[in-house]
């Protein structure tokens, strides 16, 4: 609808209409097939020759629809735009009738006939040409979406939280049961206690918790992002013991199996720097650098 020269490619995935979730109308088709037909119908109404193709991607939703050519000459663009406006308002009214309970419980969406009766004549103000508001009340996503998975938090803030939580887990173990021997043998390396996320949160200050609550997943996401140090299982936080890490059983391609040595030692080992017993692995076995001289 942007212009006559516009063409489009769409890969339908989630089942949404113009004004909310798409409501099924036919039980003889699968939900996916019915939705594909609906998206194709939108293209036809907008005056496109709609083509369908199947992408070579590892997904169950891989049918795409393409509109490259118009079914009408440029001189009829204004007339087709009115038809598109009517179509959008028909779909909007159909959704409003369904939400208001205007149909029976066995039928979640109103039929095309009901839509036509509800919108027999639209006010002139709603018949807006291209270039103006097409759907009042519609709120599109912002052009730049804010990253809220803790990845954009300042590095100093993240490092402080990681160190505080790690010390909390380490200090939870009685000193006599965990001799402090740097270098860490199997019997003496302090893996610390496991605490619930709630218990960990209770030991953090209010300002830190407030900042984490503004992120998706909060404290749990931050700890999972720092998987070198922590392991979060069933709502409990553990210090990761790299001696227990087992290689994946899945058969990997040769390229992934034989990773270049340059893929390792690109970051400092947190345990070598901060853990009282050092790293549980010797330098040659640890994927992280034991000191700046090992960094690549």
From TrEMBL:
Superkingdom in the source lineage: Eukaryota
Main subcellular location of this protein, as a coarse class: cytoplasm
Keyword DNA-binding part of the UniProt annotation: no
The keyword Chaperone is assigned to this record: no
Residue ranges occupied by any C3H1-type domain in the UniProt entry: 263-293
Protein location: Cytoplasm
Keywords carried by this UniProt record: Cytoplasm, Metal-binding, Methyltransferase, S-adenosyl-L-methionine, Transferase, tRNA processing, Zinc, Zinc-finger
ZnF bounds (C3H1-type): 263-293
Entry EC no(s): 2.1.1.211
Catalytic activity: uridine(44) in tRNA(Ser) + S-adenosyl-L-methionine = 2'-O-methyluridine(44) in tRNA(Ser) + S-adenosyl-L-homocysteine + H(+)
GO cellular component, one term: cytoplasm
PROSITE patterns the record matches: ZF_C3H1 (PS50103)
GO biological process: tRNA methylation
First-level EC class: transferase
GO molecular-function terms, A-Z: tRNA(Ser) (uridine(44)-2'-O-)-methyltransferase activity; zinc ion binding
Xref: Gene3D superfamilies: Zinc finger, CCCH-type
Function in brief: Adenosyl-L-methionine (AdoMet)-dependent tRNA (uracil-O(2)-)-methyltransferase.
Family under the similarity heading: Belongs to the TRM44 family.
Protein name: tRNA (uracil-O(2)-)-methyltransferase
Species name: Alectura lathami
